[in-house]
Every structure is written in structure tokens, then in C-alpha cells.
Write a structure and sequence with these properties.
about 425 residues; alpha+beta; 9-stranded mixed beta sheet; 6-stranded antiparallel beta sheet; 13 helices
Length: about 425
């Protein structure tokens, strides 16, 4: 059973919500962030990527960056950019992109559920990235970026969400062609029902935000040491999350481009590929987009091909081995192209599906040699792997739209 509870959100005043809300800190670099905030002193990037207000070249992990983030956040609160609700509430956060909606409950998850694996993971974290967010949370004394969690859909929660959404939202604006809408759930009965439904729903799953969640838990544990008389009710025992039902999430393809053919001629490369895959030239218009699991698009020398994994080339009973990203890695990228560790090999790059398959063609024309279009990983794959206690291969999932930062802040106090 999972503990999910309401909180007193620190959130933008409605007149400034569209100016405050920003993409998460990890989808752009410092230079891009500096450009994005020009003319907008309210952007939450001034908190999430505080180095943009420091001299160019400042070490991203320097203490001054976290001190600046904290001082900027508290200044914005003092100046009235943010307000705080007087009582703990849940919130509804709906995003609509290309006509498709995903609607989640904003609340707080338990660090004990994370520790005890009620909140299940499918990805490893990097120590440097985890330490960075840990410092950010600690200095700001707040969770400033929500964790993207999913759960098995519950009819009772859906009914409350549908009813509350008939009312007037507190925020409703468009950013980067995504409609962002927020409602407040303040009724005591609704809050109690939602909390009880999450207890009954069972496990929660991290869809996106492994580093943010690990960092939030580390800070919570640190505060427990600082305050040994803690009861478990303190806010530092919980972290900011958005909980989406599993039937609403959309995972996009996460495609690959490779610099060279590992010393092979095109003919030798195609022959080796044909040992593990059926290879068929694609005669259709535009690019070939795979729509079935275990099929792949390949772009080479200006042509698209359809690849299909041959029977017996992967273990269909293993939730990791049967992933398309694992099949491509184990049967082509590693043995043929020599990409042993895709996390560190400089010869491979990854292209999120939001950029389209035309981006693969562009990258090949501009210096890469071969591209692979992937069929998206499914949410059921993610849940199966997390339930099995296993780890997904790198770059397996690309979620869109991204949750904006700055709409909800959870103070740890």
C-alpha cells in the first residue's frame, strides 16, 4: 500500500503562472536556459538553474549556485510571485499535447515507501546528478521539481478528478503548444477518498525523475538525523510528485544514430545484420516508423529499411531482454557496431521521438552514418521490469509532455 498525502502548495499567483512555469532543469543546458529566460524575471529557471544568474563558467556544483537558488526562491515568495494555500490540498494537473490529455493528481509521496520499494524504480542513478539535486533540495528547503509517478488506474479517483474538472481551474495557459491546466481539490471527503484509494492501489512506479526522487529521499533521511525526535509527519518525510493513472501515459520512441559502421563496408554490415534480423527495403513515402514490437526502422545511405528480429534472437520470457532497445543493443549495436556501453560511447547518440524521424535523416546527412527508429517501450513493459526488480537499458523511455517546474513547490520545513 502507498501513502499519498495532500500538502500546502507554494504556487504562483494566477496572473504569473504562465511566466513562472518552466521546463525541467535537465532538458536544457545553461546557455539555452539563459536564452529562455531573457525578458522574464519570473521564470522558475532562475531557481532550478541558478547558475544562469551567475558569471558564465561558474561551476554548476559550486555552493554559490545552491545559495543563489535558495535566495532567489525566497525572494520570489517574499515579493508575492508565489502564494501558499492555507490548508493541505491535492491538485489536478492536466496537460494536453496534440489533442491527447494526461491528467494526474499532485500530492506528496512517502520517503519510506521509496526506501521499502513500494515506490518501484527501473533506472540507475548517477552519483553526481543525485548529489546536485540533493544540494538543491537541501539549500532551498523544498522540493521544487515534481516526480513523475504512475499507478494502476482507480475508478474512484477518476470520478473525483472528472467532477472537480467541471469547475473553474486556478491555472489555464499554453506553453510550447501544450495546454497546462490546474484545479484544486480542497474538499475533506475527496481528499480522504483519494488517500484511501492510493492505499488500495498498491505499488507506485517512477516513470521519470529517478534522480529527483533519490535526492529527495536523501534529504529526508538527513533531516531525520538532524531531528532525531521526528514523528514521521514532518514534511521532510514526503516529496512532491504527480501521480498519473497508467492508462493515460504515453511513451514516445527513443531513437539511435551511430557515427560509423565500425570499419565494415555497407555490404558486410548488411550481411551481418541479416543474420539476426529480416531486412526489407521500405518502398513507402517518407520515413519508416515501426508500429509493432521487435521491428525497427534503419536509415542508411539515403534509404529506409524495415528490420524484424528473428525468432530465437532474444528471450521472450525476460522483461528486459524482450525490450526492443535490448534486442537492438544485443544483436546489432554491440556485436556488429561495437557499441559496448551506450551510456559512455561517443559514437552513438539518442534522439527523443518528439523531434520526429526527419531528425534522424538530418543527423545522418550531417555526419552520422546509420540511424535506427524504435517502436516505443510500453508502460506495461516499464511496470513489468520494475515489478521484477530489474533495470531498463539506458535511453529506453521518452515521456512527453514534460512536467513543468514552478507550478507546485513543497516546503520541507
Amino acid at each position: 500500500m502507498a501513502i499519498v498525502r495532500p500538502f500546502k502548495a507554494v504556487r504562483p499567483t494566477p496572473a504569473l503562472a504562465d511566466k513562472v512555469a518552466a521546463l525541467p532543469y535537465d532538458v536544457m543546458n545553461s546557455e539555452e536556459a539563459r536564452e529562455m529566460v531573457k525578458g522574464n524575471p519570473y521564470s522558475f529557471l532562475h531557481v532550478d538553474k541558478a547558475e544562469i544568474d551567475l558569471p558564465v563558467g561558474t561551476d554548476l556544483y559550486d555552493k554559490i549556485v545552491y545559495e543563489t537558488a535558495s535566495s532567489t526562491l525566497h525572494r520570489m515568495v517574499k515579493e508575492g510571485t508565489f502564494i501558499q494555500d492555507e490548508k493541505p490540498c491535492f491538485y489536478i494537473y492536466r496537460q494536453i499535447m496534440d489533442g491527447r490529455a494526461q491528467t494526474g493528481i499532485v500530492g506528496c509521496a512517502s520517503i519510506d515507501d521509496y526506501i521499502n520499494n513500494v515506490i518501484k524504480k527501473h533506472e540507475l542513478t548517477r552519483a553526481d546528478k543525485e548529489e546536485d539535486r540533493c544540494n538543491h533540495v537541501d539549500y532551498c528547503n523544498a522540493n521544487t521539481g515534481p516526480i513523475f509517478l504512475t499507478y494502476r488506474s482507480r475508478d474512484a479517483i477518476n470520478a473525483i478528478v472528472a467532477r472537480v474538472m467541471e469547475g473553474t481551474p486556478v491555472y489555464d495557459f499554453s506553453q510550447d503548444n501544450v495546454q497546462q491546466t490546474v484545479w484544486i481539490i480542497a474538499g475533506e471527503e475527496d481528499i480522504a477518498t483519494i488517500s484511501a484509494e492510493f492505499v488500495a492501489a498498491g505499488d507506485l512506479y517512477i516513470a521519470d525523475g529517478h534522480h529527483r526522487s533519490a535526492s529527495a529521499v536523501r534529504v529526508g533521511r538527513k533531516r531525520r538525523v538532524q531531528y532525531p525526535e521526528f514523528t514521521g509527519e514532518e514534511e521532510f518525510n514526503y516529496f512532491l510528485s504527480v501521480f498519473f493513472p497508467d492508462d493515460q501515459l504515453y511513451i514516445m520512441d527513443y531513437n539511435r544514430v551511430v557515427k560509423d559502421l565500425n570499419g565494415l563496408s555497407v555490404e558486410d554490415f548488411m550481411a551481418k545484420v541479416g543474420e539476426k534480423f529480416t531486412v526489407e527495403a521500405y518502398e513507402g513515402e517518407s520515413q519508416y516508423r515501426p508500429t509493432e514490437q521487435h521491428t525497427f526502422g534503419m536509415y542508411l545511405e539515403g534509404k529506409w529499411y524495415k528490420l524484424a528480429a528473428k525468432e530465437g534472437t532474444f528471450d521472450a520470457n525476460d522483461p528486459v531482454a524482450r525490450l526492443d532497445v535490448a534486442i537492438l543493443q544485443g544483436n546489432l549495436l554491440h556485436p556488429i557496431l561495437g557499441i559496448g556501453d551506450p551510456r559512455t560511447d561517443k559514437r552513438i547518440d539518442f534522439i527523443g521521438g518528439i523531434r520526429g524521424l526527419g531528425e534522424l535523416e538530418r543527423r545522418v546527412k550531417e555526419g552520422m552514418t546509420v540511424a535506427f527508429a524504435m517502436c516505443p517501450t510500453t508502460i506495461s513493459d516499464l511496470i513489468s521490469i520494475a515489478d521484477a526488480g530489474k533495470i531498463m537499458p539506458p535511453k529506453s523511455t521518452w515521456f512527453e509532455p514534460k512536467l513543468l517546474s514552478g507550478l507546485f513547490i513543497h516546503e520541507l520545513r
